[in-house]
Amino acid sequence: MLNWKKKAAAVTIAAVMMVPGTAYGHSAVINGEGHHTYQVQWLQYLMNCIDIPEMDIPGSGDNIGNSENVSAVAEQMLAQVNRERRSAGLSELTLSRELSNVAEIKAEDMRDHGYFSHTSPTYGSPFEMMKQFGISYRKAGENIAKGQKTVSEVMNGWMKSSGHRENILNKDFTHMGVGYCTDRFGNGYWVQMFISR
Question: Which of 75, 97, 94, 96 is nearest to 85 (CA)?
Answer without folding.
Answer: 94
